[in-house]
C-alpha cells in the first residue's frame, strides 16, 4: 500500500461526524428533559445548544460525504474543529449540571 492511498479514511470520517451528531442529539434530549424536570433554565439553554450542535455535526457529515462524492478535497476547516472542541466541553458541563440538578 502506498503512502498516498488514504483508503476509506475520509469516508469513515464523514460517517463519524454523522454518528457524533446522533450521539449529541440523544445527549441533548436527556439534558433537555433534566432541565425541564428540574426547572433549570441554564440546563435548558445548554440542551438547546446541544440540539443545535447535533444538527451542525450531522450537516457537516453530509457536507463531507457530498464533497467526497464530487471528488473535491473534504478538508475540515480549523474553525469547525475548534467548534467541536467547544461542543465537547459544553456537553461535559451540561452532563454535570443535569446530574446535580436531579440530585435532591
Major sheet size, sense and barrel closure? none
**Can you write the helix and strand succession as a string?**
HHH
Taken from the alpha-carbon principal axes, the silhouette is elongated
**Count of domain modules:** 1
Number of helices: 3
Estimate what percentage of residues fall within beta strands. under 5%
Helix content: over 70%
Distance between the termini: 58 Å
Rg, rounded, reads 17 Å
Task: Please identify the structural class as seen in this structure.
Answer: mainly alpha
- Average pLDDT, all residues: 78
Compose a concise summary of this entry.
The chain has three helices and no strands.
Question: What topology emerges from the helices and strands here?
Answer:
Layout lengths: L8 H30 L2 H29 L8 H25 L2
Helix pairs in contact: 1-2, 1-3, 2-3
Structure explained in plain terms:
It is built from three helices and no strands. It is elongated. It is 81% helix and 0% strand. The model has no long low-confidence stretch (mean pLDDT 78). It has helices spanning 9-38, 41-69, 78-102. Helix 1 (9-38) runs antiparallel to helix 2 (41-69). By secondary structure, the chain is an all-alpha fold.
Q: What distinguishing features does this structure have?
A:
104 residues, mainly alpha, 81% helix, 0% strand
Amino acid at each position: 500500500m502506498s503512502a498516498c492511498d488514504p483508503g476509506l479514511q475520509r469516508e469513515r470520517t464523514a460517517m463519524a461526524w454523522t454518528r457524533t451528531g446522533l450521539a449529541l442529539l440523544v445527549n441533548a434530549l436527556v439534558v433537555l428533559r433534566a432541565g425541564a424536570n428540574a426547572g433549570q433554565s441554564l440546563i435548558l439553554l445548554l440542551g438547546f445548544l446541544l440540539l443545535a450542535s447535533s444538527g451542525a455535526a450531522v450537516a457537516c457529515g453530509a457536507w463531507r460525504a457530498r464533497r467526497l462524492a464530487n471528488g473535491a478535497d473534504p478538508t475540515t476547516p480549523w474553525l469547525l474543529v475548534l467548534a467541536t472542541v467547544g461542543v465537547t466541553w459544553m456537553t461535559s458541563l451540561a452532563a454535570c449540571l443535569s446530574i446535580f440538578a436531579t440530585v435532591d
